[in-house]
Amino acid sequence: MAGRGSRLRPHTLTIPKPLLPIAGKPIVQRIVEGFSASFSGAIEEVAFVIGDFGKAVELELQSIAELIGAKCSIYYQDLPLGPAHAIYCARESLNGPCLVAFADTLFKADFHFDLSNDGLVWVKQVENPASFGVVKTNDDDVITDFVEKSPVFISDQAIVGIYYFRDGLDFRNQVEYLIDNVIKDKGEFQITSVLEIMKNRGTQFRKAPIEEWLDCGNMESVLETHRRILELKENSEHLISSSASLHNTRVIPPCYIGANTQVRNAIIGPFVSIGSNCIIENAVIENSIIQNEAMVRHVSLQHSMLGNQSEYAGSPKVLNMGDFTTFKE
Q1: Which bin fits 150, alpha (ψ -120 to 50), beta or left (φ > 0)?
Q2: Which of 111, 223, 271, 312 is deepest in the core (most CB within 10 A)?
Q3: How large a percentage of the chain has pLDDT more than 90?
Q4: Which domains does the chain have, with CATH numbers?
């Protein structure tokens, strides 16, 4: 979570990308809840690796861990030296069975798995694998090779950024070995390098499938992921708060509307999320994300993202237009 999410600015100027809301919940909360729902035992600790985003971000992360009854640990990556270096920053939490996940993408998957496996790497078949770390496997789905972003075709099984290690301490030791010996790939410390070291030392990794891999890299992909999550959660989550006030308003599902939000004289949806304590008046909004305490008046809004405490107001118009007239703004 330590990256700055530059492709999603201005929304990531004040918070890390994993805290952007998707259908009313931060990305990272949906990831944590997804793991918790699939895991039959107790999750003891959730460790986050972040940059310097301030106390408010730390408190929100702590609340996410508390939702599943887990201890929260927060670590800091001051320099962008690669994903394995980010894990190195949190090495004190690597002990016993552990899951490691990148916190900036969402998934549709069944995360039930056999804890007796040495290790698991979740993958998704992709059309253009050159931008991803990939794996090669044998006929038993045992991984034989890890390759980081090869320009030459190796495999179409892309690593999505979720890993299970039965022996977290051994994983920690190999991460430390990588850092201590300055073993870099593409100029950074890569997780695939650690996995290759562990494989060569006898750890058997298997691939695990992802049904859908939902990107959150830029505004267009966030809106597409938001749309898909609303579809998936429409019948399993209570998406419209009981404290939201809807007056002379039509809501076209699926939509999320947060607590204490007031909507008057509007058409909302489909595929709209409105945060808590917002005011929406005289508006038509479709396929958009509006964060908390925002105010939107007298506009038609599509395919848009508005940040916390933002205000967007048009001008109410009374028109008296005759035949064959064109008016454009």
Answers
A1: beta
A2: 271
A3: 60
A4: 6-224 (3.90.550.10), 238-313 (2.160.10.10)
